[in-house]
Amino acid sequence: MSSSRQAVVPAYNSKMKNSVARDSGNIGLPKLDALFFWGVFRKHWRWMIPVGMLLSILGCAGILAFFKPTYEARFRLEIDPSNYIVFADNSTKSTPEFVELQKAIMFSNSVLEKVVADKTVASVPSIAKSRDPVQALKKAVKVTAAAGNRLVDVRFAHEDPKIAASVVNTLVDEFLRSRRSIEQIRTSSQERNVSVALNKAESEVESAKQRVRDLSMQAVKSDTILGESESGKIDTTYLDNIRIQRMEIASQLSILQLNLAELKSAYERDLETQNTENLQSKATTIPEEILEKDIVVLTARQQYENAKLQLKDLDANTSIGLKNPVYVQAKRKVDFLQEELKRIRESRTKELLDRGNLTSTDERRDRIAQISNEISELRTKRDVLESQVKDYLVSLKQSSATSVDLQFAEADLMEWNNIRGTVHERRIRLQTERDAIDDVRELERAITPKLPVEELPYMQLAGASAVGLTLPFLIGFLMELRSRKVDDANQLETRSQLSVLGEISTIPVATTGNLTKKRRSHARELRLFEESVDSLSTTLTLREDLRNCRVFTITSALSGEGKTSVSCQLVVSLARSTSSKVLLIDGDLRAPDVHHVFGREMTSGLVGYLNGTDEWRALIDREWNDSIHILTSGHLKGSPHRILSNGRFEKLIEEAREEYDYIVIDTPPVLPASEALLFAKCADAVLMCALRDKSRIEQLVQAYHRLDASGANVVGSVLSGVPVKEYASYYGDYYASKV
After folding, report:
1. Are 440 and 176 within 8 A, CB to CB?
2. Global pTM?
3. Per the structure, how many domains does the chain have?
4. Domain for residue 437, yes or no?
5. 621 has which bridge partners?
6. For residue 584, what are the β-bridge partners?
């Protein structure tokens, strides 16, 4: 190295002034930043990339091997709010609430239990193997709304496209059938209640007519005109107001009484069912008398009986033959209604067995009590109004009793005529709209899908590839955390508490050939390596607390951590930079390597001196350089502890101090060879070597404690194996522009 080259003076900081480590953060554990993960990849990329690719390929192959394409069938329903014949329904049907109601009906147990009983649906493995087939089917079916809740799509996916279409069609068909049954029951119940109200209204109208006729005859006979107003009639404004209030109360009473009658009917039916279930716990059948009183069964039976009567009338009153289309159609209607009655009886039997009667009974009882209270309050109001009317009539009758009675009788007749008209209109509405098109109807049946939902499981393949590539990196990450190998000077310093005295770049490998580019690169790497060693020697000779140290021991925790290379290069640097006379002692008696580095022959060396064969001066190799003398280890026979315990090595160091400016001892590693402690104790300062990406923090700390316990003066550590590019990026290259 040129003598004009300036030595790199270490930068000290206030926290650790004896260190030349780069300040990248003071942490006790690895800092999980980008540099740490890059270090993991840099160390293990040679096996992580092929293993990750192999795992990705295996994962994708496994997914493709077990992948079976699924086909999704779709049944589309239409919700039409304008399906009335004459009377428009003001209720909002194209709303999310209405769609949710239809979804609840579709996923009700009464519908799903019939669907899972179908052979095709029962053959689906995911449903057949489930502990609860109803819930399994419910989870597998998807119901979505579209076009502003005007369209409802029912979807089901399966590996067999035919099964997918069959399941969807079976489910929707059963849903539409159940919905029609529910609507039929509701309409029949309303018609029955309206008929009762209409009969009552007609009876009241006839009574009012008779009263008007009687009072008219009486008024003619008595010829009473007392109390008449200027217009010829009695002024009854006050009574008219009361009559209007009474009409409103009567209308409300009529509606509430209809609702009460319907609730009581359902309540009595539930009580009968509940009593039967209490008497027969876990009963498997429903008593015939309870089943025959069920409103659904009654409606179906009534339709069947009406059809039979029509067929009987055709036989008795007409001369048409059995093959006549009218007779054939009537006969088919009877057969169909008979089968429908049988199916409804079976369905209602199962529903009555499974019904939770207690909850429905309590709710209906509370509702009946509430409506009864409202009726009682309205009747009380009506009685008060009647009392007011009677009191007023008493005062009027004194002047014109007959005329007043007649006038009020006519008002009553008008009132009941209005009520009868309202009920009659309701009846006509029900009868007219009963045959209207269903507001939820089939728009597009499910057909067998021809294309799968996805031809290849791209998401699963991407996930398998990601897992396969990530798993090796995760393993490397865990290995790095477990091994805790040295990454850089800062990590070595903060986690081992050993100040870093220098960083040594990687030793360049000699190149062959005449390629100018390779030769320039090798020259640059060699120069940076020499500069890094010179930086260490400068630190050892100029630092205040090391200025008086002349004997240095270079050791490491384990073998292969660069201690011999550092020792040899440090000797050369000390001799060149300080013009001093330096002695290098190869103390690694078990695996000597110094003579190979300098290309010298092995002599009896240190072992010969310790055995008392020759004096150490006679064993010194002075031919390699005038300033650098080498004492090789010699050939060891036996235990190194035996020959080191005679005190001759301490005598050698004392005598060598008088002849040499610096003495460098290359020792064996501390952990496997304890004789390193004897060499270290004789030195003024001990340097521990660590090799980047190989040395472990725990082993360095363990070796340091052993040296410290033996009385050795461990002054710091040296990190070798730093990549040339990284070293140059940290410290720069003063001669970079001249190469």
Report:
1. yes
2. 0.46
3. 1
4. no
5. 630
6. 630, 664
